[in-house]
Design brief:
With 188 residues, the protein is an alpha+beta fold. It has a single domain, classed as 60s Ribosomal Protein L30, Chain: A, CATH 3.30.1330.40. The chain contains 5 helices and 7 strands. It has a 5-stranded mixed beta sheet with strand order 1-2-7-5-6, covered by helices on one side. The protein has a two-stranded antiparallel ribbon with strand order 3-4. The radius of gyration is 17 Å and the shape is globular.
């Protein structure tokens, strides 16, 4: 009886669409095109690239309300908890790219890989705990489908003094993929 109830709960959980889960968490996805337009850097890359049913995403950094979020060096300017929050917001930007590319986050079959870079103070060694902000959010949204292979890498310096950057690869269903946005299309 208990196993049957657990299976029914799991089935109901799978029926909840990812964007409803985002709303329930009080989170919204940024508009990727608007973000590129507002923060024109001239950097030369595209938002995503699909190879068969694998979607490779460019690195994303944390933005909240259209502005860089929790910038600085983790372990110097920012606490581990602030870095964790930054990783969550960097992941929201990645999910905005997935939504742009696929039109529907529920097409994600598996988050295959996540590589997280943490702008770290000398001696700071809690990069895995910072990047847990990204992976915990993915699991909250996708369940086991959100649990990726992962690396958490400390570095000294990220663009615009960002504290975190994440790079994701996802496996998706269906065949329709929107053409990528070119990051340099709004170059100044």
């Amino acid at each position: 009886m208990q196993d049957c109830a657990a299976e029914m709960y799991a089935a109901k959980e799978d029926d909840v669409i990812v964007e409803d889960k985002l709303k329930a968490l009080g989170l919204t996805l940024p508009d990727l095109d608007e973000q590129y337009r507002k923060n024109a850097s001239g950097a030369r890359f595209i938002s995503h690239y699909a190879v068969q049913n694998m979607l490779y995403l460019s690195g994303t950094t944390p933005f909240k309300d259209g502005e860089p979020f929790n910038t600085g060096v983790v372990g110097q300017d920012l606490t581990l908890e602030q870095g964790y929050d930054a990783a969550r917001y960097a992941t929201l930007t990645s999910l905005a790219a997935v939504k742009y590319a696929l039109g529907d986050l529920d097409r994600v079959q598996q988050v295959v890989q996540l590589i997280g870079f943490v702008n770290s103070a000398p001696g700071f060694s809690d990069q895995p705990r910072v990047i847990n902000g990204a992976t915990n959010l993915l699991v909250e949204l996708f369940g086991d489908r959100g649990k990726p292979t992962r690396a958490a890498i400390g570095c000294q310096g990220l663009a615009i003094n960002h504290s975190v950057e994440v790079v994701m690869t996802v496996l998706f269903s269906g065949s329709e993929v929107r053409a990528p946005l070119a990051r340099d299309q709004y170059a100044r």
